[in-house]
Design goal:
The strands form four sheets. The protein has a six-stranded mixed beta sheet, with no helix packed on it. A five-stranded mixed beta sheet has the order 12-19-18-14-15, with no helix packed on it. A four-stranded antiparallel beta sheet has the order 1-3-8-7, with no helix packed on it. The C terminus is likely disordered. The termini are far apart. The protein is α+β, with helices and mostly antiparallel strands. The longest helix has 28 residues.
Length: 333
């Protein structure tokens, strides 16, 4: 009788549970052993698990708000902004300063060398009209714009946020002037009969020079003269190189050579064609720019030797006799 009642009760409970009227509690799943749980926790924290660890979300993004750290928001600079900027003379330079969570603060640009305030917010504070503050309403980027940059503008510029203590983000500006230089300047010595090889480099130009003229003692080098053996080669690129080759060097090839590119100041070098001399025996005369020949050098050496011997003889005489400047004078009575 009891068994039949139990059977009927179980049947009613099963039917009600299937219909959703009664919820039958289920036992919790068995817990894994303690050593297994510790292994899983260490894998999630230390990254030593064989499963890939999810990357940490960045606190901030350059273009959006991203996730904010807990507590009050403090201004912070974005290190994605470049800390070094290069420009050519006459060009325009842009110095960026990206600030997150600025709040009610203001951003200023200050020139480090003289602590001159250039901009405050969107207001240009300096009277130098080449500087300008550039900022869009929805942007975090506070830009210092410099037009017609000059070499003297090179140096450090500080982007500062007005708070206590002051936050500073420094940017170095390098302004380069186009220049030409001849390798080996200011003097080059070559042997007679050898090849004069002059190399002129042109760097820091917005574009390669349209041409490079070579001058010898103020006259344009004639590549098609009767002398012959004169060759000019130009390799254009970020750094342009011009080559002047003069074969079978002769004494009349000595003198000043000038490299004159189309887009920068010229550079000069003096060539000495040796006629059997050595560069150590040559001396440039400041008055006329002449060169001492071996005979003149021998005469100068001989005169110097005679002067040294005479001075030595005088010193020996003073040491032996006591005669000389400052010696006491005796008077017989």
């Amino acid at each position: 009788m009891w068994s039949s009642r139990v059977t009927v009760a179980l049947t009613l409970i099963t039917t009600a549970a299937a219909a959703g009227v009664v919820t039958v509690p289920r036992p919790p799943p068995p817990r894994p052993p303690l050593d297994t749980r510790l292994s899983e926790e260490s894998g999630r924290l230390g990254g030593s698990s064989s499963r890939p660890v999810a990357p940490i979300e960045p606190l901030m993004e350059l273009g959006g708000g991203g996730l904010a750290p807990p507590g009050p928001l403090q201004p912070v600079f974005d290190e994605a902004a470049p800390r070094r900027v290069s420009s050519l003379t006459g060009g325009t330079a842009y110095l960026h300063c990206v600030v997150h969570h600025l709040g009610g603060g203001s951003v200023s640009w200050i020139r480090r060398r003289d602590l001159h305030i250039l901009t405050v917010g969107t207001y240009t504070y300096t009277t130098d009209q080449r500087f300008e503050a550039v900022h869009a309403a929805a942007s975090r980027d506070w830009i210092l714009k410099l037009r017609y940059a000059q070499e003297r503008d090179s140096g450090l510029y500080d982007c500062q946020v007005s708070r206590r203590p002051v936050l500073t983000f420094s940017v170095r500006l390098d302004v380069y002037a186009p220049r030409a230089s001849i390798v080996g300047a200011p003097d080059m010595h070559v042997d007679r009969g050898s090849t004069i090889n002059l190399t002129c480099t042109v760097s820091h130009t917005p574009e390669p020079p349209a041409y490079i003229f070579w001058y010898h003692n103020g006259q344009v080098v004639n590549y098609e003269s009767e002398r012959g053996g004169v060759t000019v080669v130009t390799e254009r690129g970020n750094t342009t190189r011009g080559f002047l080759l003069i074969q079978d060097a002769r004494p009349r090839d000595s003198g000043n050579y000038t490299c004159a590119p189309s887009n920068t100041a010229p550079s000069a070098l003096r060539v000495h064609v040796l006629n059997g001399e050595t560069p150590a025996a040559m001396q440039t005369n400041g008055a006329g720019g002449g060169v001492l020949n071996p005979h003149q050098s021998s005469q100068a050496y001989l005169r110097t030797s005679i002067l040294i011997l005479a001075l030595f003889h005088l010193l020996v005489r003073v040491a032996l006799t006591g005669d000389g400047p400052g010696s006491p004078i005796s008077v017989d009575t």
